[in-house]
């Protein structure tokens, strides 16, 4: 093992197991300078390095988040219904938020993500304006609240500022924004692009873009968004519900995937979210364009969306990522495990995804514009997630199969860019449950 002269800014951690790009390694020492790995050495002794328990994984990338949906957890399950009835409850929360209350909710939600091992989040941000659609003095005040919330919670943010200009789509065409939807819109895609141009990236935030869906952005404006997003991550909800497919086919004579393709939206920097109800041709199109697909299994099952063709998409050459979306659960280990378990239910076969494939999906930071994160290797961002191997859930697990047994509750330590954000299962902000309770109870008449 090579020896190095330590500098004052050097940091050293040691773990009994670590999931390196080559697989599980034992007795691993990580050396970090200025937030990046400068050495990763195996078969070492702890020495003066800070010990980490269990198995160390790369930081997780939560590729699809709506932070304000966290206020809905445990409040949408009476009376049954569908995605469309759930959406009315979501609108009720959206109607109440302002920059201050959004900051409190986002900070607490992002802190919950950090507790679960998330080191970067892609925020699909469409709650832009005040009641009735009136702009705040700072037109990006709500986005700035998200920036501050992520910084306070200690994780990186990709702000996927979302174009949302139509209230829906039927076989007869697009409808206008209505009610709380007016808070989402900028009038048209050109005005959306002008507002987004006022956002500036910072050390902990990338600025990306999103098309809410083919329901919310008409065909003649899709290309405007794609052009404005050139060189940056571009995300879009795709075929989450059959009703979206029927409406798009009825009005445009195309599936949503085909419509995005002819509009020039798909490509290596684009992620389509959900992709639940696809045709064979849709899968071929996504594969041909090297588009990433983001699955959100705990949301897709919570909203009764269906089970998407994850294995078929992966076999077609598409990278897969994961998100917690509406945050019925914030647990990227569970999202990864659900990817496999949903496949088992659909195919009646086990082992549809290898554990290393599940880890790759949970750590796909490049879909958020952080190409230098998600791998425990020299030169990369120093993100470390230590998962315990001695809990009631993980005791006896083989380290290489930890993705199939652990939960967020087993995350002990989280280090983001060399900074310890979670230690011993505790966040640097203190009691995250209390933060969530304070932020959420103001949004409901009865806490």
What does this entry look like structurally?
There is one protein chain. With 447 residues, this protein is an alpha/beta fold. The protein has two domains: 11-58 and 374-432, Roll (Urease, subunit C, domain 1), CATH 2.30.40; 60-368, Metal-dependent hydrolases (TIM Barrel, Alpha-Beta Barrel). 30% of the residues lie in helices and 23% in strands. It contains 13 helices and 19 strands. The strands form three sheets. Strands 1, 2, 3, 4, 5, 16, 17, 18 and 19 form a nine-stranded mixed β-sheet that branches. It has an eight-stranded parallel β-sheet with strand order 6-7-8-11-12-13-14-15. It has a two-stranded antiparallel ribbon with strand order 9-10. Strand 17 and strand 18 (419-423) form a beta hairpin. Mean pLDDT is 95; it is low at 1-8.
What is shown here, in short?
By secondary structure, the protein is of the alpha/beta class. The protein has 13 helices and 19 strands.
Radius of gyration computed on alpha carbons: 21 Å
The protein's oligomeric status is: single chain
CATH architecture descriptor name of the largest domain:
Alpha-Beta Barrel
CATH class of the largest domain: Alpha Beta
For the termini, the CA-CA separation is: 57 Å
Q: Give a short account of the largest sheet.
A: 9 strands, mixed
CATH fold description of the largest domain: TIM Barrel
Relevant CATH superfamily of the largest domain: Metal-dependent hydrolases
What structural category characterises the helix and strand content?
alpha/beta
Alpha plus pi helix count: 13
Shape: globular
Mean pLDDT: 95
| Overall number of domains | 2
Unreliable spans: 1-8
Which percent range describes the beta-strand content? 15-25%
Helix content: 25-40%
Tell me the total number of β-strands.
Answer: 19
